[in-house]
């Protein structure tokens, strides 16, 4: 791996060394091995920002436990469509990872993925009624057929002892999917980048991409090596801006029409972490609850089993906060410098329409350690105030975009943006993010390389047997693929 790029031109430049760039790079290297690819990362290793395991919850987002993916309508009903879409996307990600393990591109899946059951847990009559309605909407679908529901305290205690010990009387309810997963996306990213570096991709660390300028046949990409200050430039036929929170500035810098009107709203966060092995060994689940009124979706409380560097620990949070940084390792000027004439109106409209979110964030920032422990005890009643370390999570930059009716809307999700000519693409937004990196990058490739994509589809189907198929409509095929994928990844198969 080089540190100061000497390459003057490339077919593809990847900006950012996170899970998105790594996934796109792996796809392109498999599909077009002769293409020249160069990757630039501003930190000194891949996967250290949003992909880092301590900067996210590591949930393999399959919509098993995340209640915000199935909001309740005014009539009390629950529409399973979004949850089904997210689950289908995660199945594709699993299939691609299994392909990479199977052909030796990734050495050991136990370094990044483990079985951890996914649970939803709620307290009180209204929330329990909602959870039952959600279960009844999801369970008939083949992709959710192994979901279990219970209001029996003894059963819930068997699933997650720490959640029930010391809990007072009152109605509780939970769902559980035993084949849920914990994913260390930082390690997965490093596995993917290692594969790229070993197959002719030039990987440059400690290097900022400082500018993008249209040029004949593509883009001139300006770079600066942070340690030496040395500047460089490389011509790329295609540029992918996968720089997390840093993507908005570069997208704006590109000047493409498709970037106009976009803004960003950064949300920071913290987790409580316990590395007490005696405690961690008594909890084997990712337990998600209901978000507070006004809370952004990424602030849904959860008590998680995590595997990082082979060690098991517990994580609780997140506690939302606010910082003007767009990256954890970014600048306080990130938000003010993102304001442009084209996005002022959407940003002001979002500020006016989201006062409850602002109030929630102010309240969260003011919480002291004891208040944070009180929140933990809602999900782990016997938790000790000591033994829990407060860590800072990664930044999430939510999308602000134009809206004809409101002027602007705050969007909690991910959005792929490509120029009309397909020469540049970028990803904005957050959850479910890393878990659905594979379908997100497939969408980007279809937009950016329309002339190549049809010819790639047979190879994509070889890599991912469920590609182009709604597995929920083909239960036998879904079960077969899931069993094969689980076997390759070293995971327990679902008990259908």
From TrEMBL:
Keyword Flavoprotein applies: yes
Pathway info: Carbohydrate metabolism; tricarboxylic acid cycle; oxaloacetate from (S)-malate (quinone route): step 1/1
Entry GO MF terms: (S)-2-hydroxyglutarate dehydrogenase activity; L-malate dehydrogenase (quinone) activity
Cofactor(s) this protein requires: FAD
Known EC number: 1.1.5.4
GO biological process, one term: tricarboxylic acid cycle
Keywords: FAD, Flavoprotein, Oxidoreductase, Tricarboxylic acid cycle
Recorded catalytic activity of this chain's protein: (S)-malate + a quinone = a quinol + oxaloacetate
Family of this protein: Belongs to the MQO family.
Protein name: Probable malate:quinone oxidoreductase
